[in-house]
Write a structure and sequence with these properties.
single chain, 18 helices, 19 strands, 489 residues, alpha+beta, Beta-lactamase, elongated
């Protein structure tokens, strides 16, 4: 009887040992990743605040966008953002509770020191008993442009993106409303929770960048795409179109009107494609859209990156245009889409990419926000060279489009972007959105003959002008200010 009890006890102890062994293996092997990334894991607190997280620097390698500084307290370091809300669309935040966003998220492996390229440095630090340090991320942001764009946009809701069309470098990226990332990088969890609640409730959504994460109707700036399709199909700036007061839409009693219900060029019987583009004639571009057809319009937009994936260093949403199937029973909407309305959507980053392809003779570079990463000793451990994204148009089409865009600024809807001594090429957009207060757009590049900068500026809901807003009146001056800052005017 005693032997039987001993055997039962032994078997029970063996089962308990096996259960403990399985539990340890599950925790250390299968669930390790999930547990390590769980915000409730106290080790994350120690790791985030005991590691000297790498800095994020502007292109000048001097201006600090984000860095970790010693605290002298329980936690060794805290994250600070000297530029605050101005650079938030670039840096994002590094939060103890809510994780990371922006470059803090996409470059986290380098910034935290966990990337393979930093393994040797991290091992040396560990052997010498030094605190773990992350790598330094060098961005393409030019501080004077970022500040100029933020100042020009002021308190208006909207966004500005400036790019170098030759490399794809994003020189400035501003969004309003914005937020101060420092509010989400504190060791005071109660304060951080309050800040998060404030930033995530309401309609403003400051944590989402209007420059690259949200989409809006682009209005007549989309005529850059429509006209490009026309030139690719053999039309020229001199191709003529009928010029009625209104366009009777097919299969419906509805009509398409010009802005303000005006006549284009005083009601001339026909006008050229250049003239229609110069004054943004909706009737002619509606005709052009119907002539091109839904499939061709979508094809050209997709060649520029719509309906796809934008390869960017922070999350970016590509522009959207419905496919041909959408228009099968909605033929009139092809004309509406050709002028950037209906279900056509974009953001300043997407439209800056379109303009960049035109500026760079048909070559569309991938947008680039990070140029390189350096280890704590200053050695370059990773580079991100410029990359070609697409070739959506021919060099001839790019030349014709540049001619059209120059005419807009010289004597069309974009005269407010004129800069003495500099030839600017641009396109205005005034997009209806169901509120009665249009989104105002302006996309431009300069100098027109040899462009070094592209700017896309968008002001939401009419800004300070309300229902009277136009892209030429409110957004062209913003783009002009950024171009002037770049050219030193």
């Amino acid at each position: 009887m005693m032997d039987r009890r001993i055997r039962i006890l032994g078997l029970g102890l063996l089962l308990l040992f096996l259960a403990a062994l399985l539990s340890v293996n599950y925790i250390q092997v299968f669930a390790a990743g999930r547990i390590a990334s769980n915000p409730a894991n106290p080790r994350l607190v120690l790791q985030l605040y005991d590691t000297r997280r790498g800095a994020i620097l502007a292109a000048d390698e001097q201006t600090v966008l984000a860095e970790s500084v010693p605290t002298g307290g329980l936690y060794r370091y805290r994250r600070v953002y000297p530029g605050g809300a101005v650079y938030a669309p670039v840096t994002g935040y590094a939060s103890l509770i809510y994780g990371q966003a922006g470059l803090e998220a996409s470059m986290n492996g380098y910034l935290s020191g966990n990337a393979p390229e930093l393994a040797t440095q991290s091992l040396v630090n560990e052997l010498l008993g030094r605190p773990k340090s992350g790598g330094t991320v060098i961005t393409t942001i030019v501080p004077r442009l970022q500040v100029a764009a933020a100042r020009a946009l002021g308190s208006l809701q909207g966004a500005v993106v400036a790019m170098d069309p030759r490399t794809g470098d994003v020189l400035a990226m501003v969004s309003n409303p914005s937020y101060d990332p420092a509010a989400l990088a504190t060791t005071d969890t109660a304060a951080e929770t309050r800040a998060w609640k404030h930033l995530t409730t309401g309609k403003e959504q400051p944590l989402l960048s209007r420059a690259n994460q949200l989409l809006y109707p682009p209005g007549s700036t989309f005529k850059l795409v429509t006209a490009s399709a026309a030139f690719q199909d053999g039309m020229t700036p001199a191709t003529r179109f009928p010029n009625p007061h209104v366009l009777q839409l097919p299969n419906t009693t509805h009509q398409l009107h010009n802005f303000g219900d005006e006549w284009c060029f005083n009601g001339a019987p026909t006008i050229t494609l250049l003239q229609a583009f110069q004054i943004s004639c909706n009737v002619v571009f509606g005709e052009l859209g119907l002539k091109l057809g839904a499939a061709r319009l979508a094809q050209q937009a997709e060649a520029f990156g719509f309906n796809g994936r934008i390869p960017f260093d922070v999350p970016a949403v590509a522009g959207r245009i419905p496919g041909p199937g959408y228009f099968a029973t909605r033929l009139p909407l092809v004309a509406i889409s050709a002028i950037g309305q209906d279900n056509v959507l974009a953001n300043p980053l997407q439209m800056a990419m379109v303009a960049s392809a035109i500026a760079d003779r048909g070559v569309e570079m991938a947008p680039r926000l990070v140029s390189e990463v350096r280890d704590p000793s200053g050695r370059i451990v990773k580079t991100f060279p410029p990359r070609i994204f697409a070739r959506p148009i021919s060099s001839r089409t790019a030349s014709d489009m540049t001619q059209l865009m120059i005419s807009v600024v010289q004597g069309g809807t974009g005269v407010a972007a004129q800069i003495p001594g500099v030839q600017v090429a641009g396109k205005t957009g005034t997009a209806q959105n169901g509120t009665g207060k249009p989104h105002a757009w302006f996309v431009a590049f300069a100098p027109a003959a040899h462009p070094t900068i592209v700017v896309a500026a968008m002001v939401l809901y009419g800004g300070s002008m309300g229902s009277d807003a136009t892209g030429g009146a409110i957004s062209a001056p913003i783009a002009k200010a950024v171009i002037e800052a770049w050219l030193g005017k």
